[in-house]
Design goal:
Distance between the termini: 25 Å
Helix content: 40-55%
Order of helices and strands: HEEHHEHEHHEEHH
Number of helices: 8
Number of strands: 6
Structural class: alpha/beta
Shape: globular
Bound molecules: iron/sulfur cluster
Number of domains: 1
CATH class: Alpha Beta
Strand content: 5-15%
CATH topology: Uracil-DNA Glycosylase, subunit E
């Protein structure tokens, strides 16, 4: 797959200068996302934390270390997946992102999705899942691929949750194994790339 680095770099440049929601006021560095589209996997979490804000990179703190471990458990390196968040500037005191902030930042989510045309979107945590599967409960949906708009969405718990609840750690490893199995048995055509930026997907949850 050709990785559209020019498009991704252009989006990153706009994110770094973005003032479309109040979160820009407290940021040290915006965090557009990083990685590549070669695996066809697009990870999306909730928002930058302290370390991400310091470095301008996603998932570089302890939750990021666990994400790297989870990827390695199924034979993937970080550099072959795309990693971003539903908001790209750090919420104060690490609070949850507000719906209006997620909505404001969604233009970059849509544009990155259009540029990368992923085979599967892996949502990390309930805020990212709700963006694609509104009304769904993560306790019920995790580890199961669904369709949302033109995409396949694979919800998972956020790695940070597993740092606080050790019982979720094994669940995450189990769900990554399910993701690996799903990718092995799913042809690349299951999630055809959208022709252009799509409006916010109308969700039609369908269990595979
Ligand atoms: S969180 Fe997103 S919309 Fe808000 S200022 Fe940062 S880049 Fe812009």
């Amino acid at each position: 797959m050709t990785v559209p680095s020019d498009a991704l770099e252009a989006i990153a440049g706009e994110v770094k200068a973005c003032t479309q929601c109040p979160l820009h006021r407290g940021r040290k560095n915006a965090v557009p996302g990083e990685g590549s589209g070669v695996s066809g996997i697009y990870f999306i979490g909730e928002g930058p934390g302290y370390h991400e804000n310091e470095q301008g990179r996603p998932f570089v703190g302890s939750a990021g270390q666990l994400l790297t471990e989870l990827l390695e458990s199924i034979g993937l390196e970080r550099r072959v997946v795309w990693i971003t968040n539903v908001v790209r500037c750090r919420p104060p005191e690490n609070r949850d992102p507000l719906p209006a902030e997620i909505e404001a930042c969604d233009v970059y989510t849509k544009r990155q999705l259009t540029a990368l045309a992923p085979k599967v979107i892996v949502t990390l945590g309930r805020h990212a899942m709700s963006r694609f599967l509104p009304g769904e409960a993560i306790s019920r949906a995790h580890g199961q691929p669904r369709r949302s708009g033109g995409y396949v969405v694979f919800p998972m718990y956020h790695p940070a949750a597993a740092l606080h609840q050790p019982s979720l750690r094994q669940q995450l490893f189990d769900d990554f194994r399910k993701l690996s199995d799903f990718l092995e048995r799913t042809p690349a055509t299951v999630a055809p790339p959208p022709k252009k930026e799509e409006p916010r997907p109308v969700t039609q949850p369908t269990l595979f």
